[in-house]
Design brief:
Structural class: alpha/beta
CATH superfamily: HUPs
GO molecular function, one term: pantetheine-phosphate adenylyltransferase activity
EC number: 2.7.7.3
CATH topology: Rossmann fold
Strand content: 15-25%
Order of helices and strands: EHEHEHEHEHH
Catalytic activity: (R)-4'-phosphopantetheine + ATP + H(+) = 3'-dephospho-CoA + diphosphate
Strand order of the largest sheet: 1-2-3
CATH architecture: 3-Layer(aba) Sandwich
CATH class: Alpha Beta
Helix content: 40-55%
Largest sheet: 3 strands, parallel
Pathway: Cofactor biosynthesis; coenzyme A biosynthesis; CoA from (R)-pantothenate: step 4/5
Shape: globular
Organism: Goodfellowiella coeruleoviolacea
Length: 156
């Protein structure tokens, strides 16, 4: 499982998804449902974009979850959570989560360093740059960039 909010999905996410798809028989890309978090795209919109941009990997499935990630893993017999790491600061937080998940359920966490060309990339940063008219075309799949630009225009 590769969990995240994917608001929106970036080329960095796709790099981790593709590399995970080459390692595992199936990869579940799980979109976080957090009613307390303000997102630009709905869960359904994020799932739709993910399905379209992951079509090249037949062993990737997109789903959503709410609650404890390890409960989802247990319910769907998923034994590994994949987490992309951009920097040492990501590791500090993710290591604590990995240890808690292992303690709670026995689910392992695989840390995958991001491709260095994406080490700075975060969805929140992409949204901020795009909000002010910056070019984010090299950071997102074309479909996602189009939807991001359209959504931001609708909000103005």
């Amino acid at each position: 499982m590769y969990p995240g909010s994917y608001d929106p999905v970036t080329n960095g996410h796709l790099d981790v998804i593709g590399r995970s798809a080459s390692l595992f028989d199936e990869v579940v890309v799980a979109v976080l449902i957090n009613k307390n978090k303000r997102t630009l795209f709905t869960v359904d919109e994020r799932m739709d974009m993910l399905r379209m941009v992951t079509e090249q990997w037949p062993n990737v499935r997109v789903d959503a979850w709410h609650g404890l990630l390890v409960d989802y893993c247990r319910e769907h017999e998923i034994g590994v959570i994949v987490k992309g790491l951009r920097a040492v600061s990501d590791f500090d937080y993710e290591l604590q989560m990995a240890q808690m998940n292992l303690q709670l359920s026995g689910v392992e966490t695989l840390f995958m360093p991001t491709n260095p060309i994406y080490s700075f990339l975060a969805s929140s940063l992409v949204k901020e740059v795009a909000t002010y008219g910056g070019d984010v075309s090299s950071l997102l799949p074309p479909l996602v960039e189009q939807r991001l630009v359209q959504r931001l225009a609708e909000q103005r």
